Amino acid sequence: MKKGNLVTATLLLSIGLLSLSTTADAVPSDAELILQTGTAPGTGVVTLDQAPNFKFGPEDIVGGEVVYTTNALNPMAVSDSRGTGGGWEIKANITSFTDTSGTNPITLIGAEFILPAVTPTSPGGSVKPDDGVEKVLNTQDQIVLTAKSGEGLGIWEAQYDLAGIKVPSGNYVGTYKATMEWTAIATVSP
Length: 190
Fold this sequence. Notes:
Distance between the termini: 82 Å
Helix content: 10-25%
Number of domains: 1
Shape: elongated
Number of helices: 1
Structural class: mainly beta
Number of strands: 12
Order of helices and strands: HEEEEEEEEEEEE
Largest sheet: 4 strands, antiparallel
Strand content: 25-35%
């Protein structure tokens, strides 16, 4: 009979432990992350991280108007680390194309730099800024890319492929260079 009592006691103890483990209460907990505008250099602002560079040619001079094309050597890159969704604009302008290799500078007469349409891309998941539309750049600032309120948070790139220079007839042979200026501007926060 002792053996029977021992088996019964062990069985009751096992049933008791099972019932204790299945009636435990779940206890909720919280996880919290506070994101704030950064105070380190380069944080909490809209920055132009990289501007595209373009190299055309060498190209043959022809008797009539021609458009020479090339792909940007690198993408334009902008970062919005404000975390407010305030939006931004990228503006660009360009100087005249000039050959300064000789004793007298020569300007490429009538030339137009054509910045092509572009679709911005991002490794993040925020809302995409508007696509950039084709622009003929000159010495005046022009908006080339825009993120409206709620768009363009994080890092965005724009690869300008098939940029062009329209060159009319009547120009001298030479190595012409121009300087492009790109500016990132934060727009009003929402």
